[in-house]
Write a structure and sequence with these properties.
By secondary structure, this protein is mostly helical. 70% of the residues lie in helices and 0% in strands. The chain has a single domain, classed as RNA polymerase sigma factor, region 2, helix turn helix motif (Rna Polymerase Sigma Factor, Chain: A, Orthogonal Bundle), CATH 1.10.1740.10.
Length: 201
Amino acid sequence: MMALVMSQPEPARIEEIDRGVLDRARASDPIAMRAFVVRYQRMVFALLSRIMGPGAHVEDAAQETFLRAFRALPAFNPAGPARASTWLLTIATRLALDEKRRKRFPIAELAAADAVPSATTPEKEHARRELGAAIARAAGELSDDMRAAFVLADVHGFTMAEIAEALGILENTAKTRVHRARQHMRERLAPMRTEDHDERP
């Protein structure tokens, strides 16, 4: 996660659902719709948790995301510019931001457990927890809109155009939000990077 924040490597793209299965889901085939949920549910849960914070409300929001997606799926154009995953995450993002505006949720850690190498010593485990806490604090200082832009860009690999579409803003505004969020995260995590270098032999 430190590398993610410091250098913004290209996030891995999710494998999209098979076009035939997608077409059957668009025709309301129940088996294909189940396959759609299975393919994308982890991605949706991860995004919602990072924006809204952990809790039962994430499961409710995920269910609502898929309900909205299935209502709109017949109109989705698989040959259009949007991938099914970015289209779905756009629905999830808008829902999460709307929910956050209505009520406050606990801040989620952006650092997933699998984003940091497994600890083999108590010292490494302590360092992992410290890093996770530092990332959570830094991300918690971001506004909801800036946090969403950062998560979409650096965790889910959205382009600036896709972020603009997801958040309903201009592309230049999306660039500004992502840039400022990255700058904020770098500044807040710089002391930990310095400590990490100082501790190396």
